[in-house]
Amino acid sequence: MYRLAERLYPICRSITGNGVRETLAILKEIIPLELTEVPSGTKVLDWEIPDEWNIKDAWIKDMAGDKIINFRDLNLHVLNYSTPVDQIVDLESLKEHLYTLPEYPQWVPYRTSYHNRQWGFCMSHNQMENLKDDNYHIKIDSEIRPGALTYGEFFIQGKTKEEVLISCHICHPSLCNDNLSGIIIATFIAGFLQTLKTRFSYRFLFIPGTIGSIAWLSRNENKLQHIKYGLVLTLLGDTSPFHYKKSRRGNAEIDKIMEYLLRNESNSQIREFSPYGYDERQFCSPGFNLPVGRFSRKPHGEFPEYHTSADNLDFVKPVSLGESFTLLLKVIMLIENNLKYINLNPKGEPQLGRRGLYRQIGGESRQKDYEMALLWILNFSDGDNSLLDIAIRSGIDFPVISDAAQKLQHSSLLSAC
Amino acid sequence: MYRLAERLYPICRSITGNGVRETLAILKEIIPLELTEVPSGTKVLDWEIPDEWNIKDAWIKDMAGDKIINFRDLNLHVLNYSTPVDQIVDLESLKEHLYTLPEYPQWVPYRTSYHNRQWGFCMSHNQMENLKDDNYHIKIDSEIRPGALTYGEFFIQGKTKEEVLISCHICHPSLCNDNLSGIIIATFIAGFLQTLKTRFSYRFLFIPGTIGSIAWLSRNENKLQHIKYGLVLTLLGDTSPFHYKKSRRGNAEIDKIMEYLLRNESNSQIREFSPYGYDERQFCSPGFNLPVGRFSRKPHGEFPEYHTSADNLDFVKPVSLGESFTLLLKVIMLIENNLKYINLNPKGEPQLGRRGLYRQIGGESRQKDYEMALLWILNFSDGDNSLLDIAIRSGIDFPVISDAAQKLQHSSLLSAC
Amino acid sequence: MYRLAERLYPICRSITGNGVRETLAILKEIIPLELTEVPSGTKVLDWEIPDEWNIKDAWIKDMAGDKIINFRDLNLHVLNYSTPVDQIVDLESLKEHLYTLPEYPQWVPYRTSYHNRQWGFCMSHNQMENLKDDNYHIKIDSEIRPGALTYGEFFIQGKTKEEVLISCHICHPSLCNDNLSGIIIATFIAGFLQTLKTRFSYRFLFIPGTIGSIAWLSRNENKLQHIKYGLVLTLLGDTSPFHYKKSRRGNAEIDKIMEYLLRNESNSQIREFSPYGYDERQFCSPGFNLPVGRFSRKPHGEFPEYHTSADNLDFVKPVSLGESFTLLLKVIMLIENNLKYINLNPKGEPQLGRRGLYRQIGGESRQKDYEMALLWILNFSDGDNSLLDIAIRSGIDFPVISDAAQKLQHSSLLSAC
Q1: H or E element in which residue A373 lies
Q2: Residue segments in chain B with a per-residue pLDDT below the cut of 50
Q3: Are the beta carbons of C210 and A349 separated by less than 8 Å?
Q4: What is the set of domains in chain B, with CATH numbers?
Q5: Do the Cβ atoms of B363 and A213 come within 8 Å?
Q6: Model pTM?
């Protein structure tokens, strides 16, 4: 996973353009992504696909001809979606187009101007403060013209039409925790799942933030009814504790599952839905209101490296990616096994002993979790409670519950509903 | 407001009689009250309008002819609704008709006997203890005979038929926090509102406690369906913190509004409904169950001055009246602006930037309350949530939410429902 | 009550057999129990009535002919439902059939093998450790053959068909807190109730655990609709605090009543339903889901004496039985009086003074509980709230509320619904 991060890190992604295509091409080496190109000018919900932006190079040279800013060193140096420019400007004019972070004077900020045509550079505040009062030669070799917005999609057909949606954004340039960590976890989970037979179908989206999810939603309204669980993945590579932001519904099954799994993860946090953040904003807009939450570590805007040059390959740790991957696997295991059953013998307890499901000698005061699991499942499998509900209520670990349910089903005492 | 208190304080009010009429005549100088006279003997719900009580004078003279108790000094000295009497009695007989407060021996209690014909005097416990064992000449120059119960009403027609009910009791004699403070706040709020165009209609009631609200309810059942919010005002002039008693429903909009506004008021208290207190007892009887709460400071019976001569002009402070007035204005502002909207573009977020509602440069980690307000309103304006619900949920101040909603409406993104 | 315990203690009960019959015969001296015999082999829900077990004697003799274990000293010494055996065995073979409690080496455990044919002895761990490596003559003079399962039932017809179910298990041999305490409390309560006219009908069940309640349920499905309240009684004789386990519904009236009554009992505990324990497992199986909770002191498995020879006549205290009896009486008083009423004058308060229900002199700041009770009942008797709901909400003691309701009913202000 970390090696994939290293390959993807230098690419200059944006909401459109060849950086996205290059990124998706690399992911295709791992999973058979299907790519979609939505032409500029296409109406998508309330939005319109913008012209495509591509950039070859950019720099600021001092009058000695030395490059003091070089896009090829760090693509964050260019305001994302900058118009082309090639001119000599004095310091004062240049400063009108510079973005810095006074609170973190050594870091370069990430800034964008997707919908307002302008050019700009981002640099460290220290560097800006030390600029001599001189002229500078600036050049941005970019172009903005009709093209397309590109996104990748991978669908795994399960036994049922019901879908689990996993979405991540692919529109940030050299930012590692923000965008790359989500892309990588999604890719590896998809790679793992394609080798299995699953109950649910799984749909993975690799899309530019906001405009990408809006484009996808606009073209796939007929599929939304099948989405039973969904997660937006992002910010999963740093060392902070897990964090889950609930879906707008607040009580969707995915919310319950994440609460259940995170309560054993130290310092993890659950938050109520809010309409700001990543693409859960679109999936959870009131007209769709999908059961989609967001799984991350420290949320956007709550760590200083966010949207700066410090969100780099050092900020993301292999062990953190591994933990995030493992937690997501647990989520999927739980989704796959979180069935609702009906007790086929609901009046009184069935005689478990005769079916070999219960100890023979009575009177002992200590009970086994496994036998208790049988009783809990039988009592609460009335069509209302899922196995997860029963695990929560009984305090017995989900795997014990899930295993006991299978035993009861084999004994014809339970039927999946 | 305090000057009005000074004028109203000396008047001897009761549940009927000229004291009430005199009080309402003074209020008519400020607002165009409509007066109603309900004749004695009229059946009102389970009750009957009693005979009217009026009193000219009353005193106790010692055998030297000195007035030791004088109604004209303090009208609390007479048991309210006392029958006329003029006789010489010995101390023992007199004491059977005396009411005092042993716990507060310097104060004169307020006592009534509306429905049981008798006469009595109220005096300080100290004075009673010092009465010489002698005869006394007592005189109460009152009359109880068929007349009417009088109440005042002021209706302000708003844009809609839906009403806000503001009610206060006008039946207490020289008690200042209890009854005068409510009367004064209601009068000044009414005076302020009559100069404005409001969305809601406002109905102000100036009524004798219990029998007055019962009479009004009995005569206005057809109007009750329009009452969407209601407050009983009383005990608003002392220096204790604000207190709100919820409507019987417990989750009416007025309850939510008062909870929201009082949580920023230091030491304020919210209590559940109970069937004792002021006219909320009648408005919230189960057959009406109106959304009417009670706004006061320290509740009745919880401060020693309650129903004694110590609830006088010193006990009420101009600054307290001012604070109460201001809080009530906030309530009304909130009621007027607490609309529910429908997001007209509920699928995905609308593109706010193109409408000039959103910043142009992306990537900054700090959000403005105003932009967040736009997102919260759009996401939760699904017909279920009011702006207040959204303010509570988002933690953004109501005025910011309300302002943002108007901007969205002007951009045709929102429609009031 | 304690004397009844002394008489019942030595009897060797099981889920079938003469020990149960002997027990029920003693109870018939107090209450007119109706006995039911369900023949072996009868299908009852998912189960089948087993062959009947009876035992005359059992012992282990050492080679000197001395009885080192004697069933007549303590019937727990025999594995309940042991097959007959009469043979000489060496120590090693014997040990395969011995049950002991290593954690409490002086106590004899209680063990059963109802559904798996085998023989066994229970002894103290100390005794087993000291057994010489020798041969032993073992004898169990028991028989298992077709017969019947016996249970007792006592029904008291009340004014209505609605029933209160009181159930206890009668299948444990010399165990005193576990089974005898419940039997005794149930018997004495039944004896007390048969002398009264009650609103509800009362049904008392004296049944073998599990198979007994399953048999009864299987034969009485048509009666279950009438059960409005139910309690399983057990473990009511030791000195630990009261404990109530809620019905599966969790919000049944019996749950509310027990919570209300136990909150004044020091250290009492309320627990959520779980599908393990006594016959509430069957009554609360999802196909029946009856409003039946369990009233006990320290629950099964949570005190060391549970299912051992230490649960004897010393472990149970007369005063504890008395307290349990008294609490159950309070439950019944509450059930009998916990009516729902409708306020017949729901619009405004009725005039209580004219009906002699309210004080004549107004103005006092302190209220009497009794007058407040009148107001609470009138306000909340809307068909939704029971008197218990009103007691909980008002904080006024239930007896005051109940008494006030009767006064209001006599004044034709209230009608039971």
Answers
A1: helix A369-380
A2: none
A3: yes
A4: 2-50+149-337 (3.40.630.10), 52-145 (3.50.30.90), 340-416 (1.10.10.10)
A5: no
A6: 0.90
